[in-house]
From TrEMBL:
This is Class I SAM-dependent methyltransferase. One of its GO terms (molecular function) is methyltransferase activity. The keyword Transcription regulation does not apply. SUPFAM superfamilies: S-adenosyl-L-methionine-dependent methyltransferases. Keywords: Methyltransferase, Transferase.
Amino acid sequence: MLNNLNQKIPPTYLEIDRATKESGFTMASDILTCSLLKTLAAAKPAGKFLELGTGTGLSTAWILEGMDKHSTLISFDHDEKFLSIAQQYLGQDERLALVLSDGEDWVKNNLGQKFDYIFADTWHGKYLLLDEVLAMLNPGGLYIVDDMLPQSNWPEGHEEKAINFVKYLESRRDLTLTKQNWATGIIIAVKK
């Protein structure tokens, strides 16, 4: 029961997964994380969503599947090759804006925007510019990160960064958070 996927897989997911494997992209969110992203998206009707790090769009497909028709999602990535896969399979969804941009540039150029749901799946908004991204979160908004358990593709010294990141989140008085030793290691925080 605990690790079984019991949700309908988004229609485009299998095609994006195939294209992801063919492209050589190895940083995609796992399917359990994606399922959770869908469930949490359903909790924010008419929400404004942000995904930092589109990759090929695997997690994007699940977020869209959980969103209602009045919600919007901005998702950016710096790699045109991988973003083009998301564009091919998800670009027709009018709720979605796919943006080719460096993470630092996008965050710094959009500091005034506010969101109800932020999935930080890249360095910016997680290990870099964290305060700036958390300031974009509306009260009651969800901040979600994955890959908090040790990963085989972590560079040397990354584990210490992850530990310091968690300690910093725990020290903030404007967040209520839960750390989950599940999937690839998930943190869900809600802005007070």
